[in-house]
Amino acid sequence: MNTSFYNKLSFAILIAGSLFLTSCGSSSGGGEEDVFEFKSSDLTNKYWYSSTFIDDSYSKNDIVLVYKFNGGGDLYKQEFSGRRDVKVGSWSLGDDNTLIIDDETIINSQEWKIDKSSTRDHIFLKSTIGNRDFYTQINELNDVTADASIVKEVYLKNDDFVSGYRYDFEVKGDNIKSAVAKISSNESFTLIKSQNSNDETVWRINEVDANKYLENFPGEKLVKFVLTMNSGEEYKLEEKIYNMDIAALNYQSVKSEHNTGTGPLALSVEWKAIADPNVYYYVQILNSEKDENNPLFTSNWQPASTDDLQLLTVQEDIAGDFGLALGEQFYVKLVAFLFEEGINPFQGDIQDFNIQARSQFIRSGGEW
């Protein structure tokens, strides 16, 4: 027997096997536990989305989570109302690929093991209470915003003007098939598809539900939106209405004037300011049906000045910009509003979905 030949053959097989194991261990999805390492830099400077949708009930804690792990160990959660980041705690990554998430909005700190199948775009987390997947994006949610607010409205009741509270919702997203807002296990609002003054598709409260007024301020409320997408996928989003009330507008002080004729329309609205320096204002033009879900025009917002009386003037660039024909009836809607807590409207990209509370009054604008 040629023992030299077999010794050389065994040595060659050993080297080949060693190379095979080394190759497997260095791949992104395989390898032994002791060669896998997920670095902190693989987590930071990106958003991580996780959806664990179970059903459309209010009580289930199956909302979409969006975390951002900052390099300094700060943990941020993104709100879908304004797609803004709110600091909610801290995080750390241990040498044994243990990810500790200390989210102050959740009672207990969470300890997760990052599975070796994870990549830079997908982390698979394991714990004693279950598993969770996080992805760097969920394409259907890229353009989604979901906002809830309280409206204090002056309206006509039994021939007298009174003020009452109601809820308002606005959901945006190109891939949404249906949207429902839930404020408790027993109360929900099926939203309707409409257009805003920028020709964007929005999901809003319907006319019947918009007339359900509350006498007293409802206070802080946790709202959950259930979205069904065109793909059939379902997601649950969470939004908080803060305990921030707003005064009623002085409806008797609201006046409007407009020019008539065939040229461009100019509309001036005057009103008495609410005694709060944090209140801002805008004006909408509504059609003859007083349709709030499809306004003809929405002005830019303006802060209150030191003057007791406020004035806002809007003008068409060309006749017909506001969608009004000669002789047509229209309405003027004045809105006072408060931004959500922590918002500085003079810094950053602030949109209309960062509003916490509104106060409004609608009056006839007359005949154009």
Automatic annotation (TrEMBL):
It comes from the Bacteria. Residues 1-29 form the signal peptide. This is Lipocalin-like domain-containing protein. Keywords: Signal.
